[in-house]
Design brief:
Layout: E1 5-11, E2 20-24, E3 29-32, E4 54-56, H1 62-65, H2 68-74, E5 79-81, H3 83-103, H4 111-119, E6 121-123, E7 129-132, E8 135-141, E9 149-154, E10 159-162, E11 184-188, H5 199-215, E12 220-223, H6 229-237, E13 244-247, H7 250-259, H8 267-275, E14 278-279, H9 283-289, E15 294-297, H10 306-314, E16 321-324, H11 333-340, E17 342-344, E18 350-352, E19 356-359, H12 368-378, E20 382-386, H13 392-398, E21 403-405, E22 412-415
Parallel strand pairs: 3-4, 4-5, 5-6, 10-11, 11-20, 12-15, 12-16, 13-14, 13-15, 16-19, 20-21
Antiparallel strand pairs: 1-2, 1-22, 2-3, 7-8, 8-9, 9-10, 17-18
The protein binds zinc ion.
Zinc ion binds at residues 59, 61, 144, 165.
Length: 416
């Protein structure tokens, strides 16, 4: 590696949320992702340099995409990503403005920023290469959600791979990410030191649990994130003989995925799943859906959305159940329910929930050993870890074959 490159994070290194990484070459600065942490109050990354060449967006989840409209609105730079990442980021950006308004927080950008993001979008597909200053940047599938991308940036002497969020097993929606030969691997470390159970076993356990609840006359709520998890749960639970209803923003995302279906592992499977459920189309239908055997709905962490309405209709029914299928951050309604069996259902008071409460591990992130195997196959000299509240265990294992960096926000890492 003759000409050194440098990376610096603007956030999201020792935490899951508000990620942003600047890659600095001899003449050019590129930004990879620019997210927010939708907490109470929301948290934002450090300001970005004002001489960026382009922004590369891996996927639409808010912790990666949430502040892209702020950059697009203030710097007229290209935003590079897949077509599906654009449509879903647009939806989430408007939704985050709505949430900020409802919760009384200042808006970090205006509607014009979202319009600028769309106007400046430079749509690319997996396998495409985009020139940015001295870098050639190539897109690879990341296996995390439909449209999610890893970026390989090559200045002719150093090749860096920025993974964003990756999954290394096939799911119903997308195929797993494949390793890319690189000198520098900048990889997420969400599951440092932790493994996932076998996915097929988890699916069977979920189906068994649903079957048990329905057999005793109860109902099941699956609080799910709009992007990815709602559609994944539809694929698992539709056409299993249950009366399944789907509510929340995941319905809009579903339409986006089916319209731009080249990022799906099997468009047919998701189409069939949609035909095997009932989508809640208006508030009147919500009353009907309240009687359904299975309800898949936002929000994934019970911090709002139709899930709270459904939960309030069955709160005192011990035959019914709440099955979580995603991580519940500390401070969320879902975390409170898991830890204490009670939560605020939106009425300003904490109420006890008498339903069965369980968590199933359907993570969209690679587990510890999967990351180690993947990193080995990329054969990097350097590994840069981010997106984790404890990177140490992964740093130790990866240190056996590469130089590992665990920078803090604002710290320069020179890679040569
Ligand atoms: Zn993500």
């Amino acid at each position: 590696m003759a000409a050194p490159v440098r990376v610096r994070f603007l956030g999201g290194v020792d935490e899951v949320g508000r990620l942003g990484m600047v890659l600095e070459g001899q003449r050019t600065k590129l930004l990879f992702d620019y997210g927010m942490a939708p907490r109470d109050p929301p948290e934002y990354p450090a300001p970005a340099p004002n001489d960026l060449e382009a922004l590369f967006l891996t996927h639409s989840h808010l912790d990666h995409s949430g502040m892209v409209p702020a950059i697009a609105g203030s710097q007229g730079i290209p935003i590079v990503g897949t077509s599906l990442t654009r449509t879903m980021s647009d939806l989430l950006a408007y939704d985050s403005m709505k949430v900020a308004r409802l919760e009384g927080y200042p808006q970090p950008f205006k509607r014009e920023g979202i319009a600028a993001m769309n106007a400046q979008w430079d749509e690319r597909h997996y396998g495409d290469t985009r020139e940015s200053g001295e870098f050639d940047v190539r897109l690879h599938a990341a296996g995390h959600i439909p449209g999610s991308t890893m970026f390989e940036a090559d200045d002719g002497s150093t090749r860096l791979l920025f993974t964003g969020d990756i999954n290394l097993i096939d799911t119903h929606l997308v195929k797993k990410a494949e390793p890319v030969r690189c000198d520098v691997l900048a990889i997420e470390a969400t599951y440092s030191g932790r493994e996932h159970p076998d996915r097929t076993v988890t699916e069977e356990q979920l189906l068994d649990a649903v079957s048990g609840v329905v057999a005793q006359g109860g109902r099941v709520i699956l609080p799910c994130f709009a992007v990815g998890r709602t559609q994944e749960m539809m694929c698992i639970l539709a056409n299993q003989g249950y009366d399944v209803w789907v509510d929340g923003m995941g319905k809009t995302v579903l339409q986006m995925m089916l319209e731009d279906n080249r990022y799906l592992r099997s468009p047919r499977e998701l189409q069939k799943a949609m035909e095997g459920v009932t989508l809640v189309k208006n508030p009147a239908q919500r009353e009907k859906a309240s009687q359904a055997e299975v309800i898949i709905t936002t929000s994934g962490m019970l911090d709002g959305g139709p899930a709270l309405h459904y939960l309030s209709t069955m709160r005192t029914d011990p035959r019914s159940a709440v099955f979580f299928t995603g991580y519940q951050v500390p401070g969320s309604g879902g975390r409170s329910l898991l830890d204490t069996g009670a939560l605020d259902l939106g009425k300003g008071k904490v109420e006890k929930v008498e339903c069965e409460i369980r968590h199933f591990d359907f993570s969209g992130h690679a587990g510890h050993s999967e990351i180690v195997q993947f990193a080995k196959r990329c054969q990097p000299e350097h590994v840069v870890l981010y997106h984790s509240d404890d990177r140490s265990v992964l740093a130790k294992d990866l240190g056996e074959f590469a130089k590992v960096h665990t920078p803090m926000t604002g710290e320069d890492v020179e890679l040569s």
